[in-house]
Amino acid sequence: MADLRDQTLGFRLRREWPAYIYLIPTTVVLLFLNAYPVAYTVYISMTDFGTGGRGSLLHYQYIGLGNYYRAILGSGGPTTLTLLENSLFWAAGSVALFLIVGLGLATVMNQELRGRAVYRTLILLPWAMPAFITILVWSNMWQYDYGIINELLATIGVRPIDWLGHASTAWTALFVTNLWLSFPFYTVVFLATMQAIPKDLYEAASIDGAGSFSRFRRITLPYLAPTIVFVGLMGFLFTFNNFYPIYLITSGGPGISTQIFITESYNKAFGSVGATPELSTAAVYSVIDFVIIVAITVVVIWRTDLTRNWLK
Amino acid sequence: MRRRRGRKWVRLAKRIASHAVLIVAVLFALFPVYFIAITSFSKIPIASITAQVLIPKMSQLTLASYHAALYGQYPTFGMLLENSLIFAGSAAAIGMALAAFTGFALSKFNFPGRRSFVYFILIISLFPSFLLIIPYYFMFAKLGLIDSYPGLIIPYSAGAVVFSGILVKNYMDSIPDDIEEAALVDGLGRTGAFFRVLLPLCYPVLGLAAFLAFVGPYTDYALAHVFITSSGKETLALNLYSIATTDTGASNYGVVTAFAIVMSLPIVVFYIAFQRYIIGGLTLGAVRG
Known about the structure:
CATH superfamily of the largest domain in chain A: MetI-like
CATH class of the largest domain in chain A: Mainly Alpha
Low-confidence stretches of chain B: none
CATH class of the largest domain in chain B: Mainly Alpha
Mean pLDDT of chain A: 85
Oligomer: heterodimer
Mean pLDDT of chain B: 84
Number of domains of chain B: 2
Number of helices of chain B: 15
CATH architecture of the largest domain in chain B: Orthogonal Bundle
Order of helices and strands of chain A: HHHHHHHHHHHHHHH
């Protein structure tokens, strides 16, 4: 009976109403600083803001879905396709690297090894430095003329490489930098998860004659799966919109070969000093970016039970 | 007998290989840090950096770059730091308060619409923060808040609110309801129980929420670059960008790296001191670091 009464809306409202008071500040902030700006971006994406050719930012008008048509099917199509490919390549490639290196190192560290704690501390040290600062340093390290990476390669007789001058080497520079930024976190997270696996499982499997590979596949991986999905999704969402590595190291170059939605959008809006900012185009890329991210998130959450803990 | 000796060799080889892999990982992790540190102590023009800079002679080491980074330019490091602390400190305080209220409501109340609210804040927080800058610019221009302290503090405060709110909620979930009920029996209202009993128990997670809300603005370039137009409000991050990317700065790379080290130091110390706690928090309790 009591359970039934608990379920009725009126009873719950009477008992739980203070929650709404506590949520007012956050709701106001989110409406003003997230919901409204997102709606505003959608609106801007349907105007000729910055592309109307009137020379003044204050004169723009609603033009419907014309910008989307141009960006997807019209003259902007090839650029948008490149941005989409680059964004997905950047996010998926980075996450694949994080997972492979993180799992590999965690497996190596998850055995009885002298100095394991020292390795852990040393690997985590660079992760503690603010990314914006270390990315600035990395962008300098990749320079053709005076970058320390080319100088190091010179000591073993390798001729200087114009890292940021070609698409393939520019991607290499981005992926190496991004791996450096993130692999400590992934390694430590996977190591912590592995250490939480009950030891008797492995002992029982050994007695049953399971080799180390089959123990990894049958015990470690199933235990790790939820963590892999969780940090994998988080890593993908974060990297898809990770602005600084690309903005500071390649600026999307050479050409737009490493440009992703978020950096191109920022450039269109604020990139060129003096020129009229192409805000409607920037807004179109913002909206496309958002739609992709939401679609991926919804599918992953729907196929797994990631949010279970948050709604409990 | 022979078989056992064979296994011993395999074990030894495995151990050597493991150490080799980890040493490579550590070298990769530490190389840029070492490079920054060593460059900051050697007075060397950027154009003449060679691999030799990595093995410095004692006589070449100097603190001149630190002196130049701290006092050698205008606005001085102290003025920049003050601005950064005003922006990031205010954002941290407001962000922490918002996270505390949100976490409390989501954790200790079973109000109608709770599930929809969580989905709403999750979806809305997926919109990339860097792309909010575009609509922000127009909203804040209309309000006359460009190049003002509130103009940056307001958007900064919201930066981590969804993430921190869920962080605090998870932490409060682990506090037994009995504690709150005991406070109610003792005559405190629900609000009193929240402020006097629950909040003090949450100091660790609130500290983490404040720290996360601090680091973002402290190292923000993208928003400040658009919003700040007068040099009187310039921040550490803006200044680091300009000395790292202009020719005058690059000509003495020691100054750039010394500046970077002094600026990162407080963050690094905090991260290392609370690393297990931060890693647990960053995975929203999915992993205990």
